[in-house]
């Protein structure tokens, strides 16, 4: 295995403490399953160092007999499950939103997203073994080993999503143990939801009658209207970001590319949260006319992205390429960044536009 600093050198690093980085877009588009070393890293505190041999996961809370599980217990007591799912940060494409007005947070391009085969055990199997009552109006709160502003990282999801087939406690990514920066030895994977709800470096799971009161759940990752500012925001009023919206991005050619006239392959990804992408339109003239891209998806991977590709014949001059996806509800993306601007720069999902120059 390469070292963390070797992997860091391959990525566009937004910050080292906490460590945040994303891959260049052409590399992201190179394989449907993102190699672990190319997968974006989003962390809020320092990376914890965990010894897998002594690691334990505790499960407790409302109506739940407490469990205390080692990695070996998890593997021995529960059937293994693999889910192909895309993980994405709610801040993906935030950099684009700055064009409208300032936003807070790291300036992610369109690379705060990746897809992997996640292998572990179903969270639902563990919760059922602990005696949880399905159907109850309960929340499953997670606590992690990393510390964010003096408190352990903590978030929660509704019990129904925790019991869903796709939700995992994962210990492997693309067939290899999780890398330290992706949550070794075990993390939650909550397909379709923003990455923030998939805690890394797990240590405790609690079933309770209210969402986590941890600031990561109660205050952060909330969507606000455009007239709300950092000064006026009341976290209790913001929408808690869970299911991710329809989005698409052009990965090749990169922004500002100088191309030869003629046939130009345009490639990217599209994703529809927990729905399916049914169509991807690509424009070579800033959205005045559209053509349909060819889609690549795997039937068995409903929570994973769709890759798309089209060859455009671009005449000499400056061109604005644009992409917009359509989902299985017949909805598409907003045209303008202004349509969804919010001061936190979350859910940036308008048409992705890339200017290129053709000689
Ligand atoms: N414990 C812990 N889990 C975490 C985070 C974190 O900082 N600490 N960041 C979250 C966020 S915001 C995202 S987008 C994903 C990113 O996962 P990755 O770094 O493996 O790509 O992890 C989530 N889980
Ligand atoms: Mo995130």
From TrEMBL:
Keywords: Metal-binding, Molybdenum, Oxidoreductase. Residues 44-215 form the Oxidoreductase molybdopterin-binding domain. Its cofactor is Mo-molybdopterin. It holds the Pfam family Mo-co_dimer. It is an enzyme of class 1 (oxidoreductase). One of its GO terms (biological process) is sulfur compound metabolic process. Residues 240-358 form the Moybdenum cofactor oxidoreductase dimerisation domain. This is Nitrate reductase [NADH] 1. It comes from Methylobacterium phyllosphaerae.
């Amino acid at each position: 295995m390469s070292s963390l600093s070797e992997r860091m050198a391959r990525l566009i690093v937004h910050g080292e403490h906490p460590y945040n980085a994303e891959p260049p877009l052409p590399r992201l588009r190179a394989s449907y399953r993102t190699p672990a070393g190319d997968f974006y890293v989003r962390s809020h505190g320092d990376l914890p160092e965990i010894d897998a041999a002594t690691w334990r996961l505790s499960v407790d809370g409302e109506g739940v007999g407490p469990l205390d599980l080692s990695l070996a217990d998890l593997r021995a007591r529960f059937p293994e499950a693999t889910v192909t799912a895309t993980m994405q940060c709610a801040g993906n494409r935030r950099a684009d939103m700055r064009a409208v007005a300032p936003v807070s947070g790291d300036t992610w391009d369109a690379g705060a997203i990746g897809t992997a085969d996640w292998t572990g055990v179903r969270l639902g199997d563990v919760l059922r073994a602990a005696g949880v009552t399905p159907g109850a109006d309960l929340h499953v709160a997670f606590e992690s080993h990393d510390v964010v502003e003096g408190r352990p990282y903590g978030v929660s999801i509704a019990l129904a999503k925790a019991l869903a087939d796709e939700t995992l406690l994962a210990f492997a990514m693309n067939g290899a143990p999780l890398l330290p920066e992706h949550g070794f030895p075990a993390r939650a994977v909550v397909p379709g939801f923003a990455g923030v709800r998939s805690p890394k470096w797990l240590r405790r799971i609690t079933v309770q009658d209210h969402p986590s009161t941890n600031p990561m759940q109660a205050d952060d990752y909330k969507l606000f209207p455009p007239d709300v500012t950092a000064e006026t925001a009341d976290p209790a009023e913001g929408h808690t970001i869970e299911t991710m919206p329809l989005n698409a991005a052009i990965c090749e050619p990169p922004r500002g590319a100088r191309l030869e006239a003629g046939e130009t392959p345009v490639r990217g990804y599209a994703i529809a949260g927990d729905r399916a992408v049914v169509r991807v339109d690509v424009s070579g003239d800033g959205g005045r006319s559209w053509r349909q891209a060819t889609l690549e998806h795997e039937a068995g991977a409903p929570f994973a992205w769709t890759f798309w590709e089209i060859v455009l014949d671009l005449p000499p001059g400056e061109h604005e390429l644009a992409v917009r996806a359509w989902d299985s509800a017949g909805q598409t993306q907003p045209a303008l960044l202004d349509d969804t601007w919010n001061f936190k720069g979350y859910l940036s999902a308008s048409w992705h536009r890339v200017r290129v120059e053709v000689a």
